[in-house]
Specification:
Radius of gyration: 20 Å
CATH superfamily: Clavaminate synthase-like
Helix content: 25-40%
Distance between the termini: 38 Å
Strand content: 15-25%
Number of helices: 11
Oligomer: single chain
CATH architecture: 4-Layer Sandwich
Largest sheet: 7 strands, mixed
Order of helices and strands: HEHHEHEEHEEHEEEEHHEEEEHHEEEEEH
Number of domains: 1
CATH class: Alpha Beta
Length: 360
């Protein structure tokens, strides 16, 4: 491989950068935007649509649509982070909130499935001690359960740095935990550049295949593995796909090429740099956040709910294929389906239809 180079640019931000320039990515909903959302909700309801039937055309927006178009450009060509704030979630029931989130998101990109069962809006909340039996798990050598990435997301445990299997992930905060659950963001580009500066030998390893399991994703289960680099650059654009949980799950299978000590060292350094360079915050009810998964890692602290006090952490999650997305490296094709810029890609194939999005 030729000598690795730092990429720089607006996507190579640090937590300090996000703190200094919150106006550049945290966008309060204006009163006009909230009025447009209410009008669009009433329109969709008048058509008798359920939330998953809503499209940009049936959830009409005007000024907010232009703000969303600007957000799409910031996600792809800027820092990769946008957060709208101030949706009065207590004014709406669950179906109305899902309609609003699905409608607003449909102006940004094309929703894709998040599970083999065809899930379009995931509810990210603690599902209890049996979550592994519901969301996927493997068995460790000592008989304990090794939870899938999805099962960990549906627990109160912390989540390590990772990306999701889509161009953009969106979250709508509906409920907040009594304690903990801080959201953490880190620029994958900044991590890449810092690793090149400190340990270019380890950065080079992450341009080679790292094998992962499909544990908890596709209907074919944990025994299906694939190799994919953590770092890629295609047509001058960086893209990273990573979750250590899937790497660890793959190493439990006899068919997986074993990781070398230096590969593990590279993943350790990635996590350390993520912690060092990250931005931490509380997602407040009414926050609507979107991240470009190709250039931003996200993580979460552990949390405690208090149902008696009405303090239960609950997020709605959507995955979006973006019309202005970058071209991906050929190695992404197995996981994302298409690597073409602006294509319908990412998501998980429905186990009955074999497609990754409604009407695809």
């Amino acid at each position: 491989m030729e000598q690795l180079k730092a990429l720089g640019g607006r996507a190579a931000w640090t937590g300090a950068d996000l703190r200094r320039d919150q106006e550049g990515w945290r966008l309060p909903f204006s009163q006009q935007a909230l009025a447009e959302i209410d009008a669009a909700l009433r329109h969709a309801q008048s058509l008798g649509l359920t939330w998953e039937q809503v499209t940009a055309e049936t959830f009409p927006l005007d000024v907010l649509a232009r703000e969303i178009a600007h957000a799409a450009d910031e996600l792809e060509n800027g820092r990769g982070v946008v957060q709208f704030k101030g949706l009065p979630v207590r004014h709406y029931d669950a179906d109305a909130l899902k309609t609003i989130f699905f409608g607003v998101s449909s102006h940004l990109g094309r929703p894709v499935y998040q599970s083999a069962k065809g899930e379009l809006l995931g509810e990210i909340r603690d599902e209890g001690a049996n979550v592994g039996q519901i969301r996927g798990q493997m068995q460790n050598a000592d008989g304990t359960s090794f939870l899938s990435s999805r099962a960990r997301a549906q627990s109160a445990a912390p989540l390590r740095w990772h990306t999701d299997r889509t161009d953009v992930v969106g979250l709508l905060a509906v409920g907040q935990a009594a304690k903990g659950g801080d959201s953490r963001l880190s620029s994958a580009v900044a991590i890449h550049d810092a690793m090149i500066a400190r340990r270019p030998d380890l950065a080079a390893l992450l341009y080679g295949d790292i094998h992962r399991s499909r544990l908890g994703e596709e209907a074919d289960g944990a025994d299906s593995i694939y190799g994919l680099p953590v770092f890629t650059v295609t047509d001058g654009c960086f893209a990273s796909h990573y979750s250590r949980t899937y790497v660890e799950a793959a190493q439990k299978l006899e068919t997986t090429p074993p990781m070398s000590p230096t590969q593990w060292e590279a993943l350790d350094l990635l996590a350390e740099l993520g912690d060092e360079l990250c931005f931490e915050m509380e997602l407040e009810p009414g926050d609507m956040q979107f991240l470009n998964n190709h250039i931003v890692y996200h993580a979460r602290g552990d949390f405690q709910d208090d149902p008696a006090m009405g303090r239960v952490r609950n997020l709605y999650r959507i995955w979006l294929a973006m019309p202005n997305s970058r071209r991906l490296a050929p190695c992404f094709q197995e996981l994302f389906g298409s690597i073409e810029p602006g294509g319908l890609r990412g998501g998980i194939h429905h186990h009955l239809t074999g497609v990754n999005a409604p009407m695809s």
